[in-house]
Amino acid sequence: KAGVTQTPRYLIKTRGQQVTLSCSPISGHRSVSWYQQTPGQGLQFLFEYFSETQRNKGNFPGRFSGRQFSNSRSEMNVSTLELGDSALYLCASSPPYRAYEQYFGPGTRLTVT
Amino acid sequence: AQSVTQLDSQVPVFEEAPVELRCNYSSSVSVYLFWYVQYPNQGLQLLLKYLSGSTLVKGINGFEAEFNKSQTSFHLRKPSVHISDTAEYFCAVSDSIIQGAQKLVFGQGTRLTINP
Fold first, then answer.
1. What does the pLDDT read at residue B98?
2. Distance from the B71 Cα atom to the nearest Cα atom in chain A, whole angstroms
3. pLDDT tens across A50-86, in order?
4. B46: distance to nearest CA of chain A, Å?
5. Nearest CB partner across the interface for B101, out of A43, A55, A109
6. Span between the terminal Cα atoms of chain A, in Å
7. pLDDT at B99 exceeding the cut of 80
8. I need a surface site. Which of A78, A103, B62, B71 has the fewest CB within 10 A?
9. Would you give the DSSP letter of residue A63?
């Protein structure tokens, strides 16, 4: 079974721009979660989607948003990028009825200059 | 809300020596606990998980962990490490917010360095 895939793997953007990251979950998984990883703050939960609905949201500003499509693929968007948004963004998917068990993709490394 | 503390930020070990990476979590009625490994420039790989039952959990790559409810700990161990075990290790607890929704709360990570 193919794992979680994320595109693109690397991205360089300028402050003030916006960015969209994509995540395809493992086949059969309907829950998708997003995390931000930085050296200073570690791994922090952004949001979780299930059946196209956001079920849970972390403590991030409204510039961070996401959505999920009917095929369970998910995107996250960051508007008005700031230097502090430079991070590794990780997507994880979970098997049915086991949302606590999360399998991660390789991440998208975002650099904001 | 749950929290996780990894007691060592860095652990250097010689090859073939045993290793223990320590993790403590805040108490709760019931918890699901996980250890993940992250190799350079990669995502997180699930090493092992504790959901219920036996307190000794075996995972991939020869790792095991012991759940200790009274000490709220979930330490990771390996009897003999290899150079390829050099990586960052994260302990995580599942925090249930609403029915069905879960998020993982991670520790700050432990960088394991294996020296020849």
1. 55
2. 22
3. 999 998 899 999 999 999 999 999 999 999 999 999 9
4. 7
5. A55
6. 37
7. no
8. B71
9. T
